[in-house]
Q: What sequence folds into this?
């Protein structure tokens, strides 16, 4: 049984026509999948549909064999938003991380244990009592992940997790995600990160899946990537040394 | 069609002044003599307005309220019996008062909406500034409007995030709403600091009040015409 | 809870404008005495945006749902800026959504500004010593005060022939219908001010 | 006479000690300088000090020979913040771009001419009456730049201009900046962009300048960059093909 099974999914916002069209996607337990595509391709809508925020116009979404009911609480699934600020609303880090665990109705010692574990896993030790708005960008991102981890979801959806992070924070985030056992679906423009994390990449454009396969094959396919407004990541471009024109074209030095 | 209307080219300032004149003129009516004329005027304005769909939509809260007055007031006012059925008794005074209140309400809201619907909220605030609203209040209104959609969207995303993490529903969820609001206020404070830096760097407060452009002839004509209509209605109302 | 156009007699509406103008003048004079009135503006505007946005979203209070008024909280956090902020909000609600009215803008201003200023005064006087009590009064109490002013104005403006028994019944229904709001607002303001005093005390002076 | 002359500048936020320490920096007219360093190194503080938002604890800052007075309006200097949203505070694009020009007290026809020119230069034609919150991320960034350009500053400070932009928007931004005549000081973690735009790069860490020199030399110096938590940009790393470990280390394939 696959963890997530999406069949013939069509999704749209009221009065604006379909954003996703008859989309099929299956994710196995523990699998890490990158989701790429231009802005407006439908990545966010897909996440909203999977999380049950946006009711589908047609098609089915099954998580662990059960249909995802719009508006219901699915602890097996966690969504990490692009803007960390939108999802950190408790006064301190500990309280925020504990929020989901408390709502699962777990006994308090179990909550405490899970919180401590999630905070440690995300490298946030020592910041337990810090007000969330005083955390740095990278810490906020990891705090969101800790708040999701504490519910022990089977699938985590991450929307642009590395955006607006500096190199060090980005590195830490990649190290953290690479150690996780959960299945991850990561939407990102940071193709280098996806290359490091995800063996499999899905390219979507205009609400349809245009490619689904091994990361190196999809991201390294110049023609395919260019057709959907993407650039092949630097590390997949064979070159010794490059110089750049001012018009932005990349030219290989002799 | 919109171009054909004489009101299409009116400035936001003239529209605001006209809206105030009409609103206060209608609010002054005390009898049911002039009111039907005002109702006819409002219906005519609504039919001619290019934005009638939007206006109709915005009339809904007022219509609901007016309906409530129409239904309730006649029964709870003492006076001369008009109709009686069992314990329920409609009085003449009650019927008069309810029609007057509901009529004035609908006429005012309709006329104001028809006049102001074509103007964006920003331009309305700009018009208020040109009409002498203190700069501090006008700037406050502009900045509030500018970030309103965004802050609303942030709050809604935060609510979704709370729900996805199993936030309690009903009364037990109330404290969570306080937390969301607190977070929003802290974000507002941080945003305000950045905003202030950006405003100062681009010279906020350096400009000495520029004089607003004078109103056009058609604006003055429209205002004068509106004033005359309002005066005529009130005079007719008081003549009895 | 806004007074609509056409309900009250003209004289009362004009008196409302006079009262609100007086309050605004007073507030602007107090604001000008601040060390940096211009620098306070962005903060006041951004907080106002939040209050305005939050009151547009409904909050479930079984068996119903309410729109928060937040007038007492505005007083606590904005001080004298609450007066222009409330008037701006009322004007926009009247012209954008048809809530309230143009002729009753002054009266509605009084209904909300007076409780806001009372909330401000209570918080300044008692916020440091009895924060929870002051927050409760500034939250739920401000709603009650606004309800009272609203009811008073409606009674003044209603036709004289209104049946006394019906009047009392209507008042009771009106109060009962708003009890969930009083409750929700009281709880929310107490929790909110506790949180802010703990993690961002600069936002709530006098606390 | 150099455009910007900073001598022995020390800066700190109230009660938190010095963030910048005895810093010297000179920028010539029309020069383009990249500013790199880890988060918290003092890049933002330096920008705030140059712009007169943050009064220096010691040292002098001269712009066009004149001292920068904290709190005063310096139209020769423009600062483009990282958060585009918070500096586009007028209702429409045109109004926002005109804001600075109007505050210079220019006659209205001159304001209009400058606004039209800035909007054209930034490729925002056709969006004049668009409400600013309806602009895309890339358009917002360019709108901020247009709002700065309209004051005809001699020096523009840009804080993370390419953050949160998709590839296409980033390309457009780079093309725009590469054509500007103003002196630019660009703080960014996007080293590839700096490499394209800035002949000179300054590396700061812990409030001090650690390196100041030609971009390729500074950014290509593995030892130096690693010592300050930075990575040498991919395009300066000689390699044919690389593979990545899951712990994030880059390993060159045989």
A:
């Amino acid at each position: 049984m696959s963890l997530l099974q999406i069949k013939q999914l069509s999704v749209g916002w009221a009065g604006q026509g379909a954003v996703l069209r008859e989309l099929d996607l299956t994710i196995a337990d523990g699998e890490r999948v990158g989701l790429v595509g231009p802005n407006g391709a439908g990545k966010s809508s897909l996440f909203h549909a999977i999380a049950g925020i946006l009711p589908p116009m047609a098609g089915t979404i099954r998580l662990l064999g059960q249909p995802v009911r719009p508006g219901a609480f699915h602890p097996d699934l966690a969504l990490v938003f692009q803007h960390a600020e939108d999802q950190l609303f408790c006064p301190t880090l500990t309280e925020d991380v504990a929020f989901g665990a408390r709502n699962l109705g777990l006994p308090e010692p179990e909550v405490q244990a899970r919180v401590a574990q999630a905070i440690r896993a995300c490298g946030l030790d020592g910041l337990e009592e810090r007000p969330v708005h005083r955390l740095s960008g990278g810490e906020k991102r990891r705090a969101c992940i800790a708040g999701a981890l504490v519910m022990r979801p089977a699938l985590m959806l991450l929307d642009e997790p590395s955006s607006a992070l500096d190199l060090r924070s980005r590195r830490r985030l990649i190290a953290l995600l690479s150690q996780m056992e959960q299945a991850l679906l990561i939407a990102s423009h940071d193709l280098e990160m996806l290359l490091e994390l995800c063996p499999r990449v899905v390219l979507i454009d205009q609400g349809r899946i245009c490619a689904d396969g091994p990361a190196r094959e999809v991201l390294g396919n110049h023609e395919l990537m260019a057709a959907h407004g993407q650039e092949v990541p630097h590390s997949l471009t064979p070159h010794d040394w490059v110089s750049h024109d001012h018009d932005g074209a990349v030219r290989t030095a002799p | 069609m919109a171009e054909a209307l004489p009101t299409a080219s009116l400035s936001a300032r003239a529209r605001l002044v006209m809206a105030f004149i009409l609103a206060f003129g209608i609010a002054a009516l005390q009898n049911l003599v002039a009111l039907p004329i005002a109702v006819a005027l409002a219906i005519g304005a609504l039919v001619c307005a290019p934005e009638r769909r939007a206006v109709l939509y915005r009339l809904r809260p007022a219509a609901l309220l007016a309906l409530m007055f129409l239904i309730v007031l006649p029964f709870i006012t003492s006076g001369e019996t008009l109709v009686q059925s069992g314990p329920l008794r409609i009085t003449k005074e009650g019927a008069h008062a309810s029609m007057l209140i509901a009529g004035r309400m609908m006429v005012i809201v309709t006329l104001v909406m028809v006049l102001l619907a074509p103007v964006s909220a920003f331009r309305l605030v700009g018009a208020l500034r040109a009409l002498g609203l203190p700069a501090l209040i006008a700037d406050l209104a502009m900045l509030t409007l500018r970030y309103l959609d965004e802050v609303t969207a942030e709050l809604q995303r935060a609510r979704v995030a709370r729900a996805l993490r199993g936030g309690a529903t009903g009364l037990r969820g109330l404290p969570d709403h306080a937390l969301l609001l607190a977070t929003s206020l802290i974000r507002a404070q941080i945003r305000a600091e950045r905003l202030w830096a950006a405003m100062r760097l681009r010279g906020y407060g350096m400009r000495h009040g520029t004089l607003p452009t004078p109103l056009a002839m058609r604006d003055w004509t429209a205002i004068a015409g509106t004033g005359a209509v309002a005066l005529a209605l009130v005079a007719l109302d008081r003549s009895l | 809870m806004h007074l609509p156009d056409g309900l009250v007699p003209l004289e009362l509406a004009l008196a409302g404008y006079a009262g609100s103008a007086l309050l605004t003048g007073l507030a602007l004079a107090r604001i000008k005495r601040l060390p940096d009135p211009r620098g306070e503006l962005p903060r006041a505007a951004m907080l106002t945006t939040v209050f305005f946005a939050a009151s547009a979203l409904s909050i479930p209070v079984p068996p119903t749902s309410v729109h928060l008024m937040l007038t007492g909280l505005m007083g606590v956090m904005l001080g004298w800026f609450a007066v222009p902020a409330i008037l701006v909000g009322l004007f926009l609600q009247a012209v954008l959504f048809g809530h309230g009215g143009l002729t009753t803008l002054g009266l509605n201003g009084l209904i909300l500004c007076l409780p806001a200023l009372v909330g401000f005064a209570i918080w300044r006087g008692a916020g440091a010593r009895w924060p929870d009590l002051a927050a409760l009064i500034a939250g739920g109490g401000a709603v009650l005060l606004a309800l009272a002013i609203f009811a008073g104005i409606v009674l003044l403006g209603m036709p004289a022939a209104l049946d006394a028994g019906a009047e009392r019944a209507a008042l009771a229904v009106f109060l009962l219908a708003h009890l969930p709001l009083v409750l929700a607002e009281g709880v929310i303001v107490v929790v909110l001010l506790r949180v802010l005093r703990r993690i961002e005390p600069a936002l709530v002076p006098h606390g």
User: Anything to note?
Assistant: The radius of gyration of chain C is 17 Å.
